[in-house]
Amino acid sequence: MTKPDAARIILVDDDPLVREGAAKLLNGGGFVVQPCGEAHEAIERLRAGPVDAVLSDIKMPGLTGIELLGEIRALDPEVPVLLMTGFADLEVTVAAIHGGAFDFILKPYNPPQLLHSVGKAVEFKRLRQIEKNYQAELEFRVEETTRELQATHEIMLQGEKMASIGQLAAGVAHEINNPVGFISSNLGSLNKYLGRLTDFMDSQAKAIETSCPPEVKDAIQAERRKIKLDLITEDLGPLIDESLEGAERVKKLVQNLKSFSRADETEPKPTDINEVIENSINVCWNELKYVAELKKEYGELPSIKAYPQQLGQVFMNLLVNAAHAIETKGEISIRSWHEGGTIFVFISDTGCGIPEENLGRIFEPFFTTKESGKGTGLGLSIIYDIVKKHQGDIRVESVPGEGTTFIVKLPVVE
């Protein structure tokens, strides 16, 4: 039996069995559930009255869960949206993250996990409402204290979201790894078989040349020219080599995804900073390749004791920010070197630059110059905390209209 102040949840799924099962589970957990079979019905229910959270499937006829997320954000940006999916699709995941999804739930869902995730979303919505009410009543003197509490709260939520993204990334990597393995194996076998077939065809050609009547040889040669057999046999080898190279690149990307998804580092370990930077480039390459020419100048660096996945997040965020600062086509440069017991990493771009009045604030929590909904203002703040955790330092130099350089300094701790 639900309480009078029970949270109201809109549940959207085109599968009646999944919808009925999830509604029964949530009702039993004390929530008031409004089940919907498609996205437009959910939008009408949202317009009819306030709700605490929306739980939606991603793949549906009509509007998808991603499109519904956009509609909800336009109607009420405060409503947390949880997305359910039975497919580990990286592009869909990234689109949902950019759209502002609160959490992801993999099907078939785990009932306790589903109740926990929905409960966290409701708690988040109500905490946000309480926070807004307090901000309207508190005097100027307590605003800074409220801001610090809010920052801590948001960073905790960001950590939970990153853990969820890590699980999805690991799932995608696992799904890709198996087919890439047998594709690589089959291509290797095909390459060996091609050599044997080519040798056999050469033996046949010699036998035909020495033993067949002229009219048969002419007919065979004509057919050989007709189907362009010589061109095909010459092209097969390079085609297989290129395919093997492509499979190896996919395999490397999968390894980088697996590495990036491990967010459970409890102890520092020997770390190659150049390798961390290279892995970060591979993970976010799709953000970089269309807007910038990437120039790399790696120096010889000693191994240091660090948290490589956390440093990977630092370099990936700096690279993505550099790409976003470039409007059309520009250049991103990465330099690393070791000097006086310190490792230096410079990441420069030829983007729009940062106004001088903003330079002193860019590492503050929630400070952002991006449009509403496109940035939380937490990225550089988290980077700053990670670098400080490594006893390092980060600073920025920028000229508006010319570009920006971030300098990361890390002490060599063996």
Explain this structure.
The structure is a single chain. The protein has 414 residues and is an alpha/beta fold. The protein has 13 helices and twelve strands. It has helices at residues 16-28, 39-48, 65-75, 90-99, 111-137, 143-211, 214-226, 229-261, 273-283, 285-288, 308-325, 356-359, 379-389, and strands at residues 8-12, 32-36, 53-57, 81-85, 103-106, 269-271, 292-298, 304-306, 330-339, 342-349, 393-399, 403-411. The strands form three sheets. Strands 2-1-3-4-5 form a five-stranded parallel sheet, sandwiched between helices. A hairpin with a 3-residue loop joins strand 11 and strand 12 (403-411). The protein is extended, with a radius of gyration of 28 Å. The model is unreliable at 372-377 (pLDDT under 50).
